[in-house]
Specification:
This protein is α+β, with helices and mostly antiparallel strands and 336 residues long. Helices cover 32% and strands 16% of the residues. The chain has a 5-stranded antiparallel β-sheet. Strands 6-7 form a two-stranded antiparallel ribbon. A two-stranded antiparallel sheet has the order 8-11. A hairpin with a 6-residue loop joins strand 4 and strand 5. Helix 5 runs antiparallel to helix 6, helix 6 crosses helix 8 and helix 6 runs parallel beside helix 9.
Length: 336
């Protein structure tokens, strides 16, 4: 669950993340990718095998920017003579393999729900020329450098959330997905509170292993787990209220959205899908015009802060809910 970022030159961001830093694309993509560029200078046989029968590859060239992968455009001529381009993402290591597999599985479900919103998923796999190199392949969409219209994007996301409901009735996903190189804990759970608690614990454990222990974060985590999560998430599914686990992109921010030059429709990509509360990791205010806010509505802004997982917001939420769920239940005359 990375911090959500928005462009520094944007006056009306599509993705509104209260309290987040404002980063430019140059800052985001400044670090060198840890994968040799040679892996996108040719089309591996296993990549070719995912293309339609009779496809002739004309060219491959580096295209786009990615923090964790090498990316390229593949130009082809199909058996019927038509020209079709594909987008290739290449990574390495076992976590990288897990990442591209999860992205492919998630994009299949997104595409089934609203095909106009995501590039068509084509395949994923491992290079024939090197078993440590893995790839994700999808249709190529030429995108501009602008953020998409928030109302178009909000309405299309709402369409996904209406159509794509968990096939198990539980929260989770059928294969591991990952935010960047970090796997998400997506084991199926019956309640959103239980699922989000496990997801956040796993995410913060990875952060601690990477950055080392921090006394304040240890204190904040305990309070978030024991007081804030029950206070904000338990009321969603108790007292006669309910929500359904719906498909979410999982890492929706300004760097993973754009607009299709040909259609001017929004495009989302780099998904890390899971079946979750539809408000999770969704910072598009216009969305609320197309999908109702979950009850209790008065908790909406604080749920958004919780889903952001920013340290300043964690401090604010811990201070705001010292009595946790029990205090709220007593005030609302509910024992549940």
């Amino acid at each position: 669950m990375p911090v959500t970022k928005i462009k520094s030159n944007t006056t009306t961001p599509v993705l509104e993340d209260p309290g987040s830093a404002v980063w430019s694309k140059e800052e985001i993509w400044s670090k060198e990718v840890d994968i040799d560029i040679k892996w996108i200078e040719f089309v591996d046989d296993n990549v070719r095998s995912k293309l339609p029968a009779g496809t002739e590859v004309k060219d491959i060239s580096a295209y786009g920017a990615s923090y964790w992968t090498r990316t390229a455009a593949i130009e082809t001529v199909q058996a019927d003579g038509s020209e079709v381009s594909y987008f290739l993402k290449v990574t390495h290591t076992d976590p990288g393999k897990q990442m591209v597999h999860g992205e492919f599985e998630g994009q299949k479900v997104l595409y089934k729900a609203v095909p106009k919103l995501v590039p068509v998923p084509v395949g994923w796999g491992t290079y024939a020329s090197d078993p440590n190199i893995h790839f994700f392949l999808c249709g190529f969409v030429e995108m501009d450098d602008n953020i998409p219209d928030p109302h178009k994007l909000g309405s299309m996301l709402a369409e996904i959330h209406r159509k794509a409901i968990s096939p198990t009735g539980k929260y989770g996903f059928h294969t591991t997905t990952g935010v960047a190189a970090v796997p998400q804990k997506v084991d199926w759970k019956d309640t959103w509170e239980e699922f989000f608690l496990e997801l956040l614990k796993a995410t913060l454990d990875v952060e601690e292993k990477s950055q080392g222990p921090d006394p304040e974060m240890t204190r904040l985590k305990e309070a978030i787990f024991e007081r804030v999560i029950p206070r904000l998430l338990r009321p969603l599914e108790t007292g006669g209220r309910s929500i359904q686990p719906r498909l979410v992109h999982g890492d929706l921010w300004d760097g993973n959205t754009s607009a299709d030059i040909a259609t001017d429709l929004p495009v989302i990509f780099d998904s890390t899908c899971l079946y979750a509360h539809n408000e999770c990791k969704l910072y598009i205010r216009a969305y609320n015009k197309y999908f109702p806010i979950s009850t209790p509505e008065e908790d909406f802004d604080d749920r958004v802060l919780l889903y952001c997982v920013l340290m300043d917001d964690m401090r604010a939420l811990v201070d705001r809910y010292p009595g946790g769920y029990e205090e709220w239940a007593k005030a609302n005359n509910t024992g549940k």
